[in-house]
Amino acid sequence: MTVELTHFINGQHVKGTSGRFADVFNPATGEVQARVPLASKAELDAAIEAAAAAQPAWGATNPQKRARVMMKVVQLLNRDMDKLAEALSREHGKTLPDAKGDIQRGLEVIEFCIGAPHLLKGEYTDSAGPGIDMYSMRQPLGVVAGITPFNFPAMIPLWKIGPALSCGNAMILKPSERDPSVPLMIAEIFKEAGLPDGILQVVNGDKEAVDGILDNEIVQAVGFVGSTPIAEYIYSRGCANGKRVQCFGGAKNHMIIMPDADLDQAADALVGAGYGAAGERCMAISVAVPVGEATADALIEKLVPRIEKLKVGPYTAGNDVDYGPVVTAAAKQNILGLVQSGIDQGAELVVDGRDFSLQGYEEGFFVGPHLFDRVTPDMDIYKKEIFGPVLSTVRAGSYEEAIGLAMDHEYGNGTAIFTRDGDTARDFANRINIGMVGINVPIPVPLAYHTFGGWKKSGFGDLNQHGPDAFKFYTRTKTVTARWPSGIKEGGEFNFKAMD
Ligand code: NAD
């Protein structure tokens, strides 16, 4: 039976009234398991107005009390870890251990947010002038919005909600319509943790809801994560409407393998980073760049048996599944279309997953692993984000050629180098024009107390996600200059004065 999902508004599950719905699939079986309401502009506006009414009291609540809600959320996320992971895998398709990682990486940002009282402290200058003190405070923006992608339905909503709420804002979360159940469960958890109603509104929807957020004058800031064309659209429309906007987009992450690298280590890393979560990670490695023909030949020789051993299956099959299905039939078609373009444009398909099928799950959206060799920068499989279990190998003649490839690519989310040479590693980290760099680490996702963000077409806006940047993004600085006269002061002052 198809479940009808809801919005979560003013602390309640609320049915959609627009009459529009999107199907939510179980990607392993291909069945529609739920339908999610797509909010109308009127539904969205009502949720925003209710959030605006609730926010001042929350903004005036002392930061430590808000942090106590976060403490409780951490406890409840841990309590519900298995239940959340199961719901996440059922809609997304990733394996249960990977779903737990998705929740855990979000939970760690909530842990960081427990430090909000410290992070929100302003600056103070005693006696900036005679009898004058100067201080700054960080104040909430009011109502802010988060628009999130399908591929991390727990982690990315938590990256948005935790800092925004800890700073005293109310948030409208518009999660991906492909896997909306976990964000709804997260909203329930915040309520149980003591969050006042109206402070976290989950409004499900599509472009209509997104456009409504971008055009609503109450919404002060928008944090987006998703594909680059939508990131660019949201950034320009949101900024044109005077909002503070940060948008994180797609990726094409290169891993450079130097001739002195430990090739077994590099091959293991490539297989995990290339095929984990079916390649549906913005920090997945999708391009391997071995330096030198001998390195390339040896690497391919080590990769092939590892890739052929990968176990692809539903999350219900237990812990020995390496990755699950991709999210929709359309995603599968797009991936297979790009694989075909790679063959047509002359790349060498060394591992061919096109005929992959799983008995009992023939209607599921499974894609077998693919490995391409001799990919060149003019090919579509190199230029485009495939977001599937497809690894492309571009052979580079030198380190300079390898670093040049990564630097010339339009995306700049993550990258990695595998080498035993500290000097090369340092040079790479210093020169590369990419936001997150791994040295013998294939997926360099920064921890919660650092910040996460790509460069070039992978990130728009000047502040990163989570860590200290998030507390800047979700607050405004106000600077106060105060003088308390001790006696009668006569006469006005007409000059713009320096402090002396
Ligand atoms: P997507 O761009 O299709 O959707 C993201 C959000 O935008 C969803 O909430 C969706 O409802 C909304 N949206 C979709 N089309 C829209 C439109 N035309 N107008 C307005 N809103 C629209 O992305 P996705 O497929 O859900 O997620 C995968 C993408 O996200 C990949 O490109 C991946 O690299 C990227 N991603 C980036 C990061 C990062 O931090 N850089 C992290 C995770 C995912």
TrEMBL record:
<dbReference type="InterPro" id="IPR016163">
    <property type="entry name" value="Ald_DH_C"/>
</dbReference>
<dbReference type="GO" id="GO:0006574">
    <property type="term" value="P:L-valine catabolic process"/>
</dbReference>
<dbReference type="Pfam" id="PF00171">
    <property type="entry name" value="Aldedh"/>
</dbReference>
<dbReference type="InterPro" id="IPR010061">
    <property type="entry name" value="MeMal-semiAld_DH"/>
</dbReference>
<dbReference type="GO" id="GO:0004491">
    <property type="term" value="F:methylmalonate-semialdehyde dehydrogenase (acylating, NAD) activity"/>
</dbReference>
<dbReference type="InterPro" id="IPR016162">
    <property type="entry name" value="Ald_DH_N"/>
</dbReference>
<dbReference type="InterPro" id="IPR016161">
    <property type="entry name" value="Ald_DH/histidinol_DH"/>
</dbReference>
<dbReference type="InterPro" id="IPR016160">
    <property type="entry name" value="Ald_DH_CS_CYS"/>
</dbReference>
<dbReference type="InterPro" id="IPR015590">
    <property type="entry name" value="Aldehyde_DH_dom"/>
</dbReference>
<keyword id="KW-0560">Oxidoreductase</keyword>
<dbReference type="GO" id="GO:0006210">
    <property type="term" value="P:thymine catabolic process"/>
</dbReference>
<feature type="domain" description="Aldehyde dehydrogenase">
    <location>
        <begin position="14"/>
        <end position="480"/>
    </location>
</feature>
<keyword id="KW-0520">NAD</keyword>
<protein>
    <recommendedName>
        <fullName>methylmalonate-semialdehyde dehydrogenase (CoA acylating)</fullName>
        <ecNumber>1.2.1.27</ecNumber>
    </recommendedName>
</protein>
